[in-house]
Each structure stands twice: as structure tokens, then as C-alpha cells.
Amino acid sequence: MGLVGTILLVVLLIVALGLIVGYNTLVTLRNRAKNAWAQIDVQLKRRHDLIPNLVEVAKKYIQHERETLEAVIKARSQAVSVNADDFQERVRAENFLTQTLRSLFAVVERYPNLKADAQMMKLHEELVSTENKIAFARQFYNDEVTLYNTKTELFPYNIVAGMFNFTKLPLFEAGEEDRKEVRVQF
Amino acid sequence: MRFNFLEIKREKDRNVFLLLALLILSYTVGLFLISYAVLLVVRLATGGEITFAEASAWAYSVVFKSPVRFHLLGWGIGIGLVSWLIAGFSLGRVVKMFHAYPPDPQDRYHKQFVNIIEEVKLASGIHKIDPVILPDSDINAFTCQDFSGRIVIGATEGALARLNRQELEAVIGHEMGHVMSGDVVTTTMFSAVMSVYAFLKAVGWVLMRGTRISVGARRGSRSSSSGPSLMFVIGLVVFLLSALWSLINSLLILLISRQREYRADALAIKIVRDPVSLARALIKIKDNYKSTKLITDQSVGALFISNPFTKEEEKDSLWEELFSTHPPLSKRIGIICNVAGVSVEELRRRVLEEQKTEARRRTSIGLLFLDEDDKTAEATRWLVFRDGTWQGPFGVSEMIEMNLSPTTFVRPEGSDVYFLIQDNAELFSQLFRPRDLEESRSEVGKGADDRYEGLCPRCRTSLKKADYEGVMIWACPECFGCIVDKSQLKRILLRQEVGFSDEIEQWGDRLLAIKDKGMKIIKPEPSFICPICGERKACPSCKVLSRMFKRPFALDYPVEVDVCGLCGRIWFDKYELEVLQYMFEKRVKETGKSPEEIWNNMSGVPVRWA
Known about the structure:
A: 186 residues, mainly alpha, de novo design (two linked rop proteins), B: 610 residues, alpha+beta, Dna Ligase, domain 1, eight-stranded antiparallel beta sheet, four-stranded antiparallel beta sheet, 22 helices, 51% helix, 12% strand
């Protein structure tokens, strides 16, 4: 084995090492992004659980403007039944649910008795908190995904990404109305 | 000029870093200087005919040129690190010192605080945080961290009662800012630096005192005639120099501390993106400021959002600022308003107006009965991966008893996304709550007993859970009487949710006019069996202790109540709680004292409450 052979061996070793490091970095980042998604998922689930109770309490007090309540129920069942693998569709359904909820809380403002209901106060607090958590978790998820997506485009990593099929992850975009304010303020 | 909060943060980061380096430099330079001075004195005293310059050159060469300098450096840093470690593991002590207790899950205000902490956890990605509550009535919040990585964020009852949701969130964001920039760790470093110098000061003092006593004892012997002894001079030098240096160090520390407050404000805006609410919270703190006596240790002042020690109204003089852990509130408010692009005057006017026309619920009865089938408290149920299969679903309390490890896979019911327990902050903190916080719950903030089924002592109907300004108490749905314990009553008195009808105001005013004659108007006499502890804990033969006594609540609050001799809980008949609350609030308003002081100065409250 001559000089050429040694150089070839060293180059091969460096390439192999690069592949291992690159692969591990990408896997770590992808898992972090997936974990961030799990955080959102828990909160979305919690919101689905809370809404039936909210509707139940609100029904007792809201006589007119029933259509707002029905819109919330419809939006919820849409969000629950949507195919969990279709990311974009799911995001769209959840954003729509956020919108209808916001209009429901605007209606609640007009019913002082409903606002002062003990049950309603607890539910209101829980829902506001869940909405905030979704917003914060979304921020966190998008940060992680951006980090991962950028890595898959950078030079040595894009080769590894191409070889092992690391596809880009989608961002959780806020709904049209959400773009201005990050937090919900009921 | 208008700053971006990120620019502010960057500038303060740089300042804090430079100042910290300066502090470490000052710490070591001080040690060298003191040893140099000691050697100089020794040389001058023992060297006989030696000039000052020669002695100084000798001392200089010993301290700075010989291997002594490495010893000094090594020992200095070593001792500093050890006392840093000691300071860093005293979290439990600090929390105990504030009489902090964990939030009561049945309390609406406490629940909101817990929710906000959860939100901020998600926003910052930092998971190990325990919320605690201080019984204080001031508006304040603090954070604390030990080297095991456990973080505690606390808010006072006053803050929970008087800040709205967004304001409280901004304040917690500020505390989170301290955590994220590692301020809590450097605070313990400060106390380490200070304690090393305090130790040196003490050594100097002992040397001085010790020799003077011995000189006095041997009065008339030969050493007393030859002026002060060598030990005395060494002691004096060490004492004076270390005193001077600890002053210099503490000024540096205070300077750093003030820079960190600005930085935490900037980070709070970064986390919650709501500068207006932060400014509003600070305005409320500034306007409602009353010094309280709950916290007595000066060294922990820097942990709070606003300095808990300022005596009266803050003065904006340079001198005051130099010796303060926090920059003046008005300065902070100015900077934040600048970031938000609103004028300070306009914002203050709005806050004051809102406080006047506080949106109270205009009902004369604060009791809100809760439905029996209360589903809101029901949290997500979880499937747990154990022994190779998915089991469950389980509630959180069941999971606590299962003794799961943090590396168990779980997924919420109805979802197929699974993860480790340790990766979900909310679940993790519910399952692995530190034990010492649980213990302090047994003393304060017990709240209402969940499993209790008692009868109203007046109408013998069963009592129901009710919400009174966020506090969960037991009340009678027929006669609207209710039973309250001490920690609950304080919370109720601090909160201002209920509006009072004209009748209650008249009633309260009439009682307020009666001065210190409560016992004459209402003769204490035994009334009925305590509905909470009566049937369970009474002496089986006489039942004397479990009997309630009719009496005025306090001499200066002659509201007729019934107090249990055993558990100290108080039975309020319809409207009595509202009247007491009205009287309390009116007294706070009229005297201009802090609610804490009014609460502590009630005269002749029941024995169990004093």
C-alpha cells in the first residue's frame, strides 16, 4: 500500500466520520422538532376536551346569537375528525377553531351573568391559558423546525439529507387574523 | 430615540459581563491588598531599623513575586467557590424564610398563576420550575434557583389579587428573564463574595478585640506601656481594609444588579411580547407601594421584581440609586414605554381610571355555587407504555401512585403522538413535585377539604362547594352561610372582585363607627357544633372543643361570627363576610396603610388566628 492508498484511506475515514456526525445532527434536530410538535398536540387535544364544557355552560345563558355557538361546535368536530397525517389541513382546521372561539368570547362579553358564572370563569381561564400555550408552543415549534430545515440545506448536511431522505418539516403558520398579534387577548 | 428590546438586552448583556469580570478582579485584588498590608505592618514592627520603602518593597516582593501569589490566588478562588456552593444550595432555606407555600389547586387565582407559569415554560423552553406563593399583600414576585437546577418562581398574594392576567404574565416573564440569563446563579456568587469579606472583617475584629481584652487583663505589665500590640494593629488593618473592600464590592454588585433588572425587563418583553402590560404592572407596583416587614433579610432583595425594602416613596436621586438593588421604577417604566411607543402619563392615567371604575361584579353576595359534576377540573388522561403495551387511560393522581420513571413513554388519550414524561413540562411537574414544597402545604393554604360532606348548622341542608372571589369554600345553598379558615380569609380580604350593595355599605359604616366595644355588643357564648371538625374530631365525652362560639370577629371589627374552638374556622352568616370585607377595604383606603399592616393589627381576633 503506497502513499496513494494511505491518502485514500484517510479521505474515506473523513467522509465516513462526516456522514456519521451529519446524520446524528440531523436526527437530533428532527427529534427536537417532533417533540416540539408533541407539545402543541397536547394543547390542541386539551382544547378539544374543554370546548364541549364551554358550550354546555354558555347554552344556559346565550339565547340569541346561537349561530356563534354552533360555529364553534362545527369547527371543533372538523378539527377532531381531520386526518392527523394531513398537516396543512389540520393546521387550517385548528386556526379556524381559534377564530370561532375568539368570536364566541366576544359574544360572552355581552352577557354579564355568563361572565360571572363560576363554571364559566374557570373554563374561561383554562381556555385562555390553552390558547396562550398553543401560541407559545407554536413559536417554539417553528423555531425548532426552522433550525432543522436550515440545517438540511447547509452544505455538508444537504448531502446527508439527500442520502437518508431527511425531508423538510412544515411550519405551523398562524391564521390570517393571527399574524398581527402573537398572543390572544380576550 | 426609540430602542428595540433586543438592542437593550444586548447592551445590558455586555455591561453585566464587564461588571462581573470587574467584580472577580476586585475580589482577588482585595485579597492581595490585605495580605500586602498585613506583611507590611509585620515587617515594620519586627524589622527594627527599617524604612517604610524597604518594608513595602519586601512585602511587595513576597506577595506578588514569590510562590505566595499562587497560594493566595488558589486559596482565594477556592474559598470563594466553596462559599458559592454553600450559597447555591440554600434554596429550601430561602423559600422557608418567605413562608412560601405551593398554590392551592382549588383556588381560581392560584390556578391562573400556575397556568401562566406553564405558558411561560413553553415560551422559554425551561421546564423545571415550581410555582410558590408568598402570603404577602404587596405586589411583588421573585425567583430563586439552586445548583441542582431546580427553579422556584413565586408571586405574592397581593400580586395575584391586584394584577390582571396579562400584567401577571409580564411580571412572571420578567422573573423568567432572570432565570434565562443565569442571574440567579450570579446572585449566589455575590453572596459568596460578600461572605468571604464578611469573614475577613470578623477575623480583623476578633484580633482587635482579643488583644485589647488581653492587654486590659494584664494591666500594669510591660506590654501595655509599649502602645498598641502588633496583633491589634494587624486586626485593625485587616478590619479596615476588608470593610473598605466589601463596600467597593457591594457597590459593584448593586451596579450589576441594576443592569440585570433592565435586561430582565427586556427579556420579559421578548417572551410575552407585551410591553404595555409590563409597564402597567410596574406602574401599579409603584403606585401601591407599601413597605412590608415579612421579608427581613437584605441579601435576597435582588431576587424580587421590585425592591422590597424601600422605606417610603422612591426618590429619584443619584445617591439613592447608588445603594439600591433595583433601578428606580420610573426609569424602568420610561424605558419600557419607549419600547412600546406609548406615553407614560397616558398609561398611568388609564391605569388609575381603571382602578377607580374597577369592573366589579355588582352583586351583594360573593358566593358562586359550583356544579357537582364539575368537568373543568378534569385534566387530560394519559396512556402509559408499560410492560410492552399501552395501558390506561390514567388520571394524573393515578400516575403518581404508579411510581413511573421520567423516561416512560406516554401519550394523551385519543392522540397517537407519544413522548417521554420528562419531555412534557406540564406532566413532569405534576408527577415529580419536590417533596419539601408538599410539606409546607400542610401548614398553610389547605383550602377546603375535598371529601367533606357536612350539614349547615342552621338549616341542616348539606353544604356545597362555592367560589368566593376565587377561593373555594363550603357554603349553605339555603341560608348562604359559609365556613372559612384563616389563610382563605386573608386571600378573600385582599381580593377586590365583589362589589358591595348600599345596604352592606351602610351596615359596615355603622359597625366601623363602633370603636373597641365589640365584646360588649356581642357577648361570646357557645353556639353550635363546628360543621367541619365537629363530627370528626370532637372529644367523645364532652364535645366541648368542637363547639363553636358566637363572638365578634375582632374588637375593631364587631361582625358577629361563630368560631370553632378546635379548628379555628369561622362561620359567617349571610352578608357577614361581605360586611367584613367592606370594613377591611375601607380601613385600608382611609388609613393609607398597607393591607398587611391592617391585617396584622386587628385587635382581639380569635386565639387560633393570632
